[in-house]
Amino acid sequence: MSPARLLRSELAMVFRRRRNVALLVVLGLVPVLIAAAVKASGHDGSGGSIFGSITDNGLFAALAALLVVTPLFLPLGVAVVAGDAIAGEASTGTLRYLLTVPVGRTRLLVVKFGGVLAWCLASVAVVALAGVVIGLILFPSGELTLLSGRTVSSAAGGYRLLLVAAYVAASMAMVGALGLFVSTMTEVPVAAMAATLTLTIVGEVLDQVPQLSSIHAWLPSHYWLDWVDLLRDPMSTAAIGHGLLVTLGYVAVLLALAWARFTSKDVTS
Hints:
Blueprint: H1 3-16, H2 18-41, H3 59-69, H4 73-92, H5 94-99, H6 105-138, E1 144-145, E2 151-152, H7 154-183, H8 189-207, H9 213-216, H10 238-263
Antiparallel strand pairs: 1-2
């Protein structure tokens, strides 16, 4: 089976599952609920903050939604898909069939991670697009006032939103790599999902403990919300660049561990 055909099959399986579709719907509802709540409150935004700027420009509804979903909802959705990637195939007995097609284990692992990355992008895109649509329906559009006070064009604001979405999706790749590694260690998908989410939350908790400040710079979640620097003028990319490097390092290590485990694993189901 060619890699392209295998990837198409994986993407179809990921995005056709009712559970995953439901997750995308829930993610898409987050910006709708935020925008509706702000509209119902009837308060004008004070500016200077993401939530306070929603009434000034609907584009901020998407940014506010990304701020809300990044710490928990996005990691949850990614953990579900990544944790199921290998363990789900093993639990249903299709993993052994895939490996006899024949499909090399390394190729299969790469395709599985490709499906996880596609899911990360799709999840962030749903939140961002739903936020933009509902924001433009309920609130004004046009020029965007950044958090630093400077006003930019709507096109420049949209460009910054794209950068934010790309950064959030890249950040979630670490959760995907973690989930894929855990998924190679068990044949129980729910266990892999729970372990992935638990480890992710533990990292976020550790990042909030001041006494552990010496390790904060090594925690990927420490940089998850640094995308707010993209909403200032000039854009500050130092923390974001460091965050991407840390994330890339974790992804590389976790994928190497997943490969070592999966290529030496005795597949019996």
